[in-house]
Amino acid sequence: MRATLRLLGLVLSAGCSSGDGPQGPPAPVARVEVVPATLALGVGTSGTLTAIPRDANGAALQSRSIGWASSSEAVATVTQSGLVTGTGAGSATITATSDGQQGTASVSVTATPPPPSSNFALRLYGNVQSDLGRVKIPLDAPARPVDIGASDFTIEFWLRARPGDNGRTGSFCGGAMDWIPGNILLDRDRAGLGRKYGLSLLSGRVVFGYSTTVDTEGRSICSTSRVDDDQWHHVAITRTQGGALQLFVDGVRQATATGPAGDISYPDGVAGQAENDPFLVIGAEKHNIPGYPGFVGLLDELRLSTTIRYTGTFTRPTRRFTVDAQTAALYHFDEGTGTTLGDALGQSPGVLRVGGTPAGPAWVASDAPTGN
Asked: Domains in the chain, please, with CATH?
């Protein structure tokens, strides 16, 4: 009898074992936790999110499928393994789904700061009284190569001007001094004397003029298209010693004229009648005469050359200028700080005379199409 009871106990014990019995259904997913709950990224950088399905008691459930989605792929994308990549500045919600339950994480993406710029331009504000708001480049004592005009020459540069910022208007063109009524960008005047030139914007068009031996004996030339459209434009002026003028905008020759022949450089060793005579001035009427405003806008890559660089239509430059044997002076405007304007030849530097409200000239990052 004892043997029979012992055997029955073993059978009952084996029947109560759970090792080989049927398993119940898997616990349903009650919620999905996404960690971390917030993620901060820069554009182009990545981070990983993890989704944890949990049952009603909060226990983590294993081997459950997870689906991932982003509310805005313009801000952040997510792979099916939870890798999130920032694609644009802004905010997005990343959602993980398992068995119909969802969990989310918030992602913020900031624009990656650009590397420090090495390509600058000069912003001019037209604040031109009291000898401020300009760049002054000495021409004489001693004589400097920037003093072109004794032979053939080319002046070229990039400019950008917004509509309405250069308000001087008029239809003057042809006379020696017709550049003076405009918003003056380059002033190499001699007060009351000849051998001078200048360039301005008048009614949004480029005007270049010069005089030879007599103050009023000369010629001006004007572009046919406006350049005050908030776009970068390459401008080039050429003059032969014989007086033949050309004016190009973005590689298109827009005007030609012939004026008096002769030397228009600053006379070496001659004292000026006015303090600023022996200077090339950028961005202002050099003599501080009230009512003659300066240029308002951006200037980049100014090159003065002792040759005729362009004779017909050309493709406007796509790289910044380089020094060659015909370069008289070259200003990249890439200093970015300070009040010294360097010349790539090292022989004709200038000085920024900063003033006015807003204070200018000012260094600004350049987006001119010069390939920098």
From this structure: 31-110 (2.60.40.1080), 120-365 (2.60.120.200)
